[in-house]
Amino acid sequence: MVFQPTLNVQRLAIASLLMMGLGTIPAFAQSSGTSTMNVKLSDVLELKINTANVDIEFATPADYNNGVTKPVPNQLTVTSNRPYDLKIKTSGSDLVNGQNLIPVSNISAQTTGTGLGTQSVVSALSTTDQTLATAVPPSMSKQISMQFSTAAGNSAFLKPSGDYTTTLTFTATAN
Fold first, then answer.
1. Which of 59, 71, 74, 160 could form a disulfide with 143 if both were Cys (CB 3.0 to 4.6 A apart)?
2. Which first-to-last residue range defines the signal peptide (predicted)?
3. C-alpha 60, offset from chain centre
4. Residue 53: which of 171, 172, 165, 170 has the closest Cα?
């Protein structure tokens, strides 16, 4: 007598072979690794002058009697990744028009606006760096407005008409 397997026995034999690894389909594997990312920052501090000329004009008797205040919107732009101090000085001790002189100490300067750290009024410009603001927070392209003023009734401005000039130097120093 010849043994003839039944259909169920055939299925059982095929399933056993599959379970033993013959003809199995490989499972999808996963592998991972790590990489280091470095972000390298360099200190950056840039000061740009947006308004090159500051014109303080005495045009009327009221200007001489009351003094003149000259706002200069967005005169400076500073980009810094660290807090910084902002200072101002003049190139000479006088505003000059030929032989005529007006001491720069007759003009005050200050920053205006918010977000400028601790602001100070420079009551008398000079050839020495004077602090306009300290601990100004880091920022990208921070617009800084300035204001220049003269005192009321200041006889130092009773000079012949003309343009009296000096050079202003602004300095930003990182903390």
1. 74
2. 1-29
3. 38
4. 165
